[in-house]
Amino acid sequence: MNFELTDSFKKKSQKLDLKNPRLRSALIKQFHLFSQNPRHPSLKLHKLQGERSTQFAIWIISDLRALAIKSGEKYIFFDLITHDEY
């Protein structure tokens, strides 16, 4: 599956990586799975509801989720947030 990471996503992941050294390896693992099979059960890909109904989320680590919008056949990941933030 094609996907893209925005600059703001990359900046936030670098900032969070300083607080949690396991994050980098989790991001690499999850995005590798996503590129192979976006419906892989460990990703828990789902469409959000309410104000975020045009967005999708995948599980990264603990309560951290990566948010994306879908453009054609490509997912554009733009933010990393905790489950409570959405």
Key phrases:
single chain, 86 residues, alpha+beta, YaeB-like fold, five-stranded mixed sheet, 2 helices, 33% helix
How would you characterize the overall build of this protein?
With about 90 residues, this protein is of the alpha+beta class. It has one domain (about 5-80): YaeB-like fold, CATH 3.30.2310. The protein contains two helices and five strands, in the order βααββββ. The chain has a five-stranded mixed β-sheet. A hairpin with a 2-residue loop joins β4 and β5. The model has no long low-confidence stretch (mean pLDDT about 95).
Protein topology:
Blueprint: E1 3-5, H1 7-19, H2 22-36, E2 46-47, E3 55-61, E4 64-71, E5 74-82
Parallel strand pairs: 1-5
Antiparallel strand pairs: 2-3, 3-4, 4-5
Please give the order of strands in the largest beta sheet. Answer: 1-5-4-3-2
What is the CATH topology descriptor? YaeB-like fold
Task: State the CATH class.
Answer: Alpha Beta
- CATH architectural label: 2-Layer Sandwich
- For the secondary structure, the number of strands is 5
Report the sheet with the most strands, covering strand number, pairing sense and barrel closure.
5 strands, mixed
Strand content: 25-35%
Please tell me what the overall shape is: globular
Summarize the structure.
The protein has 2 helices and 5 strands, in the order βααββββ.
